[in-house]
Write a structure and sequence with these properties.
Blueprint (H helix, E strand, L loop, with lengths): L9 E4 L13 E3 L2 E16 L10 E16 L5 H11 L6 E6 L15 E13 L9 E8 L4 E3 L6
Antiparallel strand pairs: 1-2, 1-5, 3-4, 4-7, 5-6, 6-7, 6-8
Length: about 160
């Protein structure tokens, strides 16, 4: 089993109008430093206990796709960061397309192979500058609330 690493991962934002599978207007968000939180399927539950059981019972209700925080070095001129901030300022409830590419393309020649890719739709709920010390770089964090399943594609070699 090949181990996947986040070193040299690349983050992209797309549009909110294209279907995730057909998105082509990807803009790289430069300066990624870390990702925290969870992305995937997690059931929300409701209490389904009845007195006669003597045990707590739960019933699955809906999926929660997760929430992730992305930390970046701030670059106000980066088109990806500009798009991410605009998505946060967008007052509609429509999610944006996002893509994460790992640095594991087995055939990195131009046009050959593809890296492991995670695609998802999310609303940008925050875009905030992080505090720091005199020796720190200026950073910001964007919180993404995922709204659908994460589509995963494993790395593949070209033909």
């Amino acid at each position: 089993m090949a181990r996947k690493k986040y070193a040299k991962a690349r983050y992209f934002i797309g549009t909110k109008t294209a279907a995730l599978e057909s998105e082509t207007a990807w803009t790289e968000i430069e300066g990624a430093r870390s990702e925290s939180g969870n992305a995937g399927k997690e059931w929300q539950t409701t209490d389904a206990t009845v007195f006669a059981d003597g045990f707590r019972r739960n019933a699955k209700t809906i999926y929660d796709s997760g929430q992730i925080d992305l930390m970046f070095l701030r670059n106000i001129a980066d088109p990806g960061q500009v798009a991410l901030k605009a998505a946060c300022d967008d007052r509609t409830d429509e999610p944006y397309n996002f893509k994460v590419e790992l640095d594991d393309n087995p055939d990195p020649a131009p046009g050959d192979g593809s890296p492991t890719t995670f695609r998802f739709r999310a609303q940008v709920q925050s875009f905030v500058r992080r505090g720091g010390q005199p020796t720190n770089l200026v950073e910001f964090t964007a919180r993404l609330d995922l709204e659908d399943e994460v589509i995963e594609a494993d790395a593949s070699a070209g033909v």
